[in-house]
Specification:
Helix Hairpins, two-stranded antiparallel sheet, binds magnesium ion
Length: 110
C-alpha cells in the first residue's frame, strides 16, 4: 500500500464499497451520494464557521474526498484523469478581484 498512490486510494474505497455491498444496496445511487457529499460539505462549513481545529477540518475534508472517490467508482469515471484535465483547463484562465477576493473563472458573462 502506497499512501501517495491514487490507485491505492481508489482500491481501498472500492474495498469499502465491496465490504458493505454498496452497489447492491443503494450506496452507489448518485442522488444519494450527492446528498451524502452535501452533508459532508455542511460539516466542513461547520468546522470553518465554528472555528474547529485544523485536524477536525482535515477529517471532514477526507470524508468528502472518500465520497468523491466513491462517486467516481459509482458513476464509472476516472477522477484522476478528470482532475488533471480540469487543472489544465483552469491553469490558463484569468483571475480577477471581485468584492476584494481573487476569482479564477472563464468570466463568460462580461
Ligand atoms: Mg464527516
Amino acid at each position: 500500500m502506497n499512501p501517495d498512490s491514487y490507485q491505492d486510494m481508489l482500491a481501498v474505497v472500492q474495498a469499502f464499497h465491496d465490504k458493505h455491498r454498496f452497489r447492491e444496496t443503494g450506496g452507489e445511487e448518485l442522488a444519494y451520494r450527492v446528498a451524502l457529499m452535501t452533508e459532508e460539505l455542511g460539516e466542513i462549513s461547520a468546522c470553518v464557521t465554528k472555528g474547529k481545529s485544523k485536524e477536525h477540518l482535515a477529517e471532514e475534508c477526507a470524508d468528502l474526498l472518500i465520497l468523491l472517490l466513491g462517486t467516481a467508482i459509482a458513476a464509472d469515471f476516472d477522477l484522476r484523469r478528470a482532475f488533471w484535465d480540469k487543472m489544465k483547463k483552469i491553469e490558463s484562465r484569468e483571475s480577477r478581484m471581485i468584492n476584494g477576493r481573487i476569482r479564477v473563472s472563464e468570466f463568460r458573462d462580461t
